[in-house]
Design a protein that fits this description.
By secondary structure, the chain is an alpha+beta fold. The protein has 19 helices and 18 strands. Among the domains are: 156 residues, no CATH class; 121 residues, Uridine Diphospho-n-acetylenolpyruvylglucosamine Reductase, domain 3 (2-Layer Sandwich), CATH 3.30.465; 89 residues, Alpha-Beta Plaits, CATH 3.30.70. Helix 16 packs antiparallel against helix 17. The structure holds flavin-adenine dinucleotide and 2-acetamido-2-deoxy-beta-D-glucopyranose (NAG) (8 copies).
Length: 571
Amino acid sequence: MVAFRVLCFSIGTAVSAVFAQPTELEDCKCFPGDPCWPSEAEWASFNRTVGGRLVATVPLAAPCHDSAFGPYNESACAALRSTWWFPETHMSSSSSPMAPYFANASCDPFAAPQSQCVRGTDPQYAVRAAGAADYRATLAFAAARRLRLVIRNTGHDYNGKSTGAGALALWTHHLKDTAVVDAYESAHYRGPALRLGAGVQAHEAYVAAHAAGLAVVGGACATVGLAGGYSQGAGHGPLNSYAGLGADQILEWEVVTAAGGQLTASPVENSDLYWALAGGGGGTYAAVVSATVRAHRLRVVSVANLTFSAAGLSKDVYYDAVRTYISSLPAMTRAGTWHNWVLLADSFSLHPTVGPEMEASDLDALMQPTLAFLNRSGIPYEYRVRQFSSLLEAYDGMFPRDNVTEFSLGGRLIPRSVVENNTSLTALINIYRYINDQGGMIAGSAMDVSGFPAGGVQNAVNPVWRHSVFNNVIGLAWDPLDFAANKVPQETITNDFMPKLEALTPGSGSYSNEADFRQPDWQDAFWGSNYKALKEIKNKYDPHELFYALTAVGSDEWTVHEGGRLCRIGT
Ligand SMILES: Cc1cc2nc3c(=O)[nH]c(=O)nc-3n(C[C@H](O)[C@H](O)[C@H](O)COP(=O)(O)OP(=O)(O)OC[C@H]3O[C@@H](n4cnc5c(N)ncnc54)[C@H](O)[C@@H]3O)c2cc1C
Ligand SMILES: *[C@@H]1O[C@H](CO)[C@@H](O)[C@H](O)[C@H]1NC(C)=O
Ligand SMILES: *[C@@H]1O[C@H](CO)[C@@H](O)[C@H](O)[C@H]1NC(C)=O
Ligand SMILES: *[C@@H]1O[C@H](CO)[C@@H](O)[C@H](O)[C@H]1NC(C)=O
Ligand SMILES: *[C@@H]1O[C@H](CO)[C@@H](O)[C@H](O)[C@H]1NC(C)=O
Ligand SMILES: *[C@@H]1O[C@H](CO)[C@@H](O)[C@H](O)[C@H]1NC(C)=O
Ligand SMILES: *[C@@H]1O[C@H](CO)[C@@H](O)[C@H](O)[C@H]1NC(C)=O
Ligand SMILES: *[C@@H]1O[C@H](CO)[C@@H](O)[C@H](O)[C@H]1NC(C)=O
Ligand SMILES: *[C@@H]1O[C@H](CO)[C@@H](O)[C@H](O)[C@H]1NC(C)=O
């Protein structure tokens, strides 16, 4: 391991003094066991500052092991194992990341009771924030003691951005306030809006909006955090083609900055911070307390789903059917629909496609080219189309429940032009065949967000989204029983599958929230032409680099060493 020395300070040292000219050698965040690590008494004192809301991490799977956290408990462990792949199991925890790679088998529920259960990659402590005052106290303590700070909301992040070894977490999950603003007025927007506390999850926002006859942009996944990584990273979901991405909805952010200031960031106030937070990625510019988003009045929402199997078909016919569907996406998304589809070697499923403000008959008409091909080719399929009178009813009626994604992932935004060009579409389908042949999963979320954000607003969403037809996610199954066995599939994603997709889509990029966390040249792939401007805004609002998250803007100045210590590069 690279040599390091750590800074140590007595309590009460002013924040400005802490950051006085750290030398290269000294530049690591304080780690548990270091002399600079706060004593028990200092943690207790900090706990009083945050009203007793400091939580010492107990790894979620502790009941599955005999460890310092307690004895093995067979029934509690069995219950955890049977629900481990549900987001709900992790999102109420103060520490557990959903992405299994980032749990690092530190306390693995599927491993033997005698195997280790340590905090490992989990934060050491979390502050269960009840409001902005807890944000200020947590950021100040982390800055003064030079602790690694993590912002944890739901724990969905695939890049492990909401977890971190030796860290103190600002835990936003319990900020559940929602408020309807009937008539929001600004230079850029007049209409209904919803103010969402940092911990509000997609389905909770759908319910709150519905009660006022409204709908908001959120994920296909019910549990992602709308004011958190979802909207800060872009945010795709059923209303995208009708209303734009999650980031395009933001009217204003209420934040606490690294320096402890409480600010409003909107297109007219602290507009650089507004711009960066809307699409420039979570966990790096400031800590969001609430987001106010555009709300939409929908009279009708239609939904269709479709599945067919490869059984009994020649591969050529199967992939021709897939090709027919994919080639319909530019027209379908232009007409206002959004789609989630999954392609496996043995089955294709569209679950579902949504047409906001679209009658069922119109959505059905858009599906005809695909259905006609299936009929013509004698391919059996299951198809349903239904009409609802609100997004919430449509969601509850026809959206499948999402598991935590048990795959090593890669991802690429596919330009509309690639799908519209017969030659490159053939090449894309051939890549899909290749990936499926090796057991890979391929998924797409299709939308047309070319006309957003509305009202002349600008934001930091990677511009390649605007001419993409879908976000393509590829994956190889995660082996939960053998952590090390996942290394080879991950390398296949990074070194074989992703380069093929990249070669076909030069100049495009990847959705930072659904990508390969080992993506080479991620600054360009994730943040595109905005990277330089985003880094300047990061440096302006967080000059002492309190905020860090893997692949976040500015994280290229830092590295995580084996064992989890976070240090500035060059130490
Ligand atoms: C099962 C599953 C389904 C998904 N479905 C979708 C989908 O339908 N559409 C889609 O677009 N994406 C989807 N995603 C990806 C999702 O958008 C990202 O995982 C996103 O990071 C989730 O944000 P979060 O705040 O809920 O998660 P967290 O993991 O808690 O946080 C993610 C990041 O956001 C930062 N952050 C969180 N809260 C704040 C805050 N208040 N202030 C500043 N930074 C903050 C954190 O530091 C971290 O960097 C899905 C992921 C999973 C695992
Ligand atoms: C913080 O204080 C509360 C209330 O006294 C207590 O329940 C909790 O265990 C304390 N947290 C830690 C980490 O000691
Ligand atoms: C084991 O866990 C269950 C469920 O959480 C709990 O009710 C029970 O008391 C635990 N048993 C022991 C011996 O701690
Ligand atoms: C979803 O997760 C649950 C709980 O862990 C598991 O029982 C189930 O098999 C998973 N389903 C799929 C399709 O992976
Ligand atoms: C389509 O949705 C209906 C609910 O309306 C559900 O019963 C069915 O299983 C779904 N079919 C597919 C193919 O997803
Ligand atoms: C496909 O076949 C089904 C069943 O015969 C029929 O109801 C449907 O109209 C056909 N659709 C198209 C697009 O040809
Ligand atoms: C498009 O490519 C496919 C597969 O190569 C070919 O069968 C088809 O004829 C082509 N269509 C056009 C319009 O060129
Ligand atoms: C279609 O794609 C091929 C292969 O990527 C490319 O060579 C060709 O120039 C494209 N045609 C058009 C009209 O863009
Ligand atoms: C992750 O696991 C590896 C292998 O057990 C271990 O060497 C490393 O220290 C762990 N990382 C953290 C942060 O715990």
